[in-house]
Amino acid sequence: MSTSYLPAGLPAPQPFPDGLDRPFWDGLRREELVIQRCQDCQRFQWLPEWLCHRCHSTRLEFAPVAPHGRVYSWYRAWNHPHPALAGVSAYLVVLVALAEAPGVRLIGNLLGDPMRDPTIGTAVVGAFEHQSEHSLLQWRIHDGPSRKDGPHDED
Fold it and tell me: 38, 60, 61, 76 — which has fewest CB within 10 A?
């Protein structure tokens, strides 16, 4: 993605001080979505932890997944907590259930018309936004053929 969706001046997201989520941020810079997965039970999990949520193994890795999913929930932001957003009328925030990482949901902005009402279950595809210090994963409505794999809730 060549231009920034949100205005300049917002604080840059940073990896956790302990570096646990650094592979995620490094993956975004490479335009690759990687999510933490247990090497023993194969369960994906987000946010990253030092042990598996399911089996408590400490054998965890970051595995690539396609940046595809479905809108699980959404919110139109009107009140802006940061001065850099003073000129923005509204923007859409979506919670996306990833198609290839059962139980994992990621939050991001939905690109396009901020006044539309997204439908729960709508297919979305990731859009990588590169800024000087970091990269973000934004979302856009998927216009291609419908994917039969949708959100998986195996929490």
Answer: 61
First to last CA, the chain: 32
Residue 146 reports pLDDT greater than 70: no
Nearest to 55 by CA among 71, 44, 66, 70: 44
Helix (H) or strand (E) holding 33: strand 33-38
| Angle (nearest 5°) at CA 65 between 61 and 67 | 140
SS (H, E, C) 88-142: CCCEEEEEEEECCCCCCEEEEEECCCCCCCCCCCCEEEEEEEECCCCEEEEEEEC
Question: Which of 96, 130, 91, 97 is closest to 111 using CA atoms?
Answer: 91
Q: How long is the chain? A: 155
How confident is the model over 43-70, as a mean pLDDT? 97
